[in-house]
TrEMBL record:
Transmembrane segments: none annotated. Pfam families: MST. InterPro entries: DinB/YfiT-like, MST-like. Residues 1-38 are annotated as: Disordered. This is DinB family protein.
Length: 186
């Protein structure tokens, strides 16, 4: 016997997909968004939702389960990391010093991710709050070419960087979820 989980999916129409298109909240049957800003926001929303979907149905221990040594990566660690990252990005927007770290020292977002329900609830609450605050800070700058902060970074670059960060970590989440219970990614 192996302790490896068997691969599985909830999808029935396309068994290599995470879920059937009719049940996928990311599926948009309407036209794509108009304009660059709306398109970037739509992609960001999709990746944020993907991360949440990868975590659904797992208990605190499963969310905190590490991938493979020596990595400290876990789904809960990814949620905490993205909350920390959203917070950090706000520091790039203004001229204020970057906000203090949520979880303490470097890598504490991953290292401190333990399988306790209170930590899971707090991590998702932190992520939602940090996303809302960063979204609000960026909404004050609708010109994608505007350069902000001490490094004069373009708003467009901040949005694209956020998409890239979520997309990369959604790829990690695919593998982490499959390692936890065998559910395949998409």
């Amino acid at each position: 016997m192996s302790d490896e989980p068997a691969r599985w999916t909830q999808a029935t129409v396309h068994p290599d997909m995470w879920t059937d298109p009719d049940n996928d909240p990311r599926e948009n049957t309407g036209p794509s968004p108009d304009g660059e800003l709306a398109t970037l926001q739509d992609f960001l929303t999709g990746y944020r939702l993907t991360l949440r979907m990868k975590c659904e149905g797992l208990d605190a221990e499963q969310l905190a389960r590490r991938s493979v040594p020596p990595s400290t990566m876990s789904l809960l660690g990814l949620v905490r990391h993205l909350a920390e990252t959203e917070r950090d990005w706000r520091g790039w927007i203004g001229d204020e010093p970057a906000p203090a770290k949520l979880y303490g020292a470097r890598d504490a977002d991953f290292d401190g991710a333990v399988g306790e329900e209170s930590q899971v609830v707090a991590a998702f609450r932190d992520l939602e709050r940090e996303q809302e605050e960063t979204d609000a800070a960026l909404a004050a700058h609708p010109d994608l070419g505007e350069r902000v902060g001490k490094n004069k970074i373009a708003i467009r670059e901040l949005l694209v960087h956020r998409i890239e960060e979520y997309a990369r970590h959604c790829g990690h989440a695919d593998l982490l979820r499959e390692r936890v219970d065998g559910r395949v990614g998409q």
